[in-house]
């Protein structure tokens, strides 16, 4: 029943799985139940933009909300790639949406499709793209949530 499921991330306590729904411009959250089963899905935060409806009025690129890759930072913010808008937003634990990266021209951040952290302090930010011939690397103001292979 998901609408083009895409990027996924686990909460730090592994109690929830987050899944971007590209064709619904949002993120779903599922409780992880005993036996590694998923509970019913619920929208996590608001819709993250608009969708271009067939035959509908043209939606400005900056307002497009097609969600793709997601990553969780160490403070519990879920970073979400919006490739059609050349933006990355973060959904805070209070369900507020903060724009983290915005490149309307697409000169540097162009149709980004995935995001993750690395480096010794987990503040090296890596952003992949479906259009760019490179992976962006920059410094993040907050560390990424460590994955199991990054825990010491």
Any idea what the shape is? Answer: globular
Strand order of the largest sheet: 1-2-3-4
Helix percent band: under 10%
Low-confidence stretches: none
| Mean pLDDT rating | 95
Q: What gap, in angstroms, lies between the N and C termini?
A: 38 Å
Give the biggest sheet: 4 strands, antiparallel
SSE arrangement, N to C: EEEEEEEEEEE
Question: What structural class is derived from the secondary structure elements?
Answer: mainly beta
Over the alpha carbons, how many angstroms does the gyration radius reach? 15 Å
Q: Percent of residues in beta strands? A: 35-45%
Number of strands: 11
The tally of helices reads 0
Summarize the structure in words:
With 152 residues, the chain is mainly β. Helices cover 0% and strands 41% of the residues. The strands form three sheets. A four-stranded antiparallel sheet has the order 1-2-3-4, with no helix packed on it. It has a four-stranded antiparallel sheet with strand order 5-6-7-8, with no helix packed on it. The mean pLDDT is 95.
């Amino acid at each position: 029943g998901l609408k083009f499921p895409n990027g996924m991330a686990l909460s730090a306590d592994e109690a929830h799985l987050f899944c971007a729904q590209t064709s619904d411009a949002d993120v779903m959250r599922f409780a992880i139940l005993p036996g590694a089963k998923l509970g019913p899905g619920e929208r996590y935060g608001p819709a993250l933009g608009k969708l271009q409806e067939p035959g509908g009025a043209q939606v400005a690129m900056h307002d497009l909300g097609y969600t793709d890759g997601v990553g969780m930072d160490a403070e519990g913010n879920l970073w979400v790639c919006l490739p059609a808008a050349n933006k990355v937003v973060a959904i805070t634990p209070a369900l507020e949406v903060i724009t983290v990266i915005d490149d309307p021209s697409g000169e540097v951040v162009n149709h980004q499709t995935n995001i993750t952290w690395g480096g010794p302090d987990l503040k090296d930010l890596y952003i992949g793209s479906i259009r760019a011939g490179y992976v962006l690397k920059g410094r993040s103001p907050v560390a990424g949530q460590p994955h199991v292979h990054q825990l010491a």
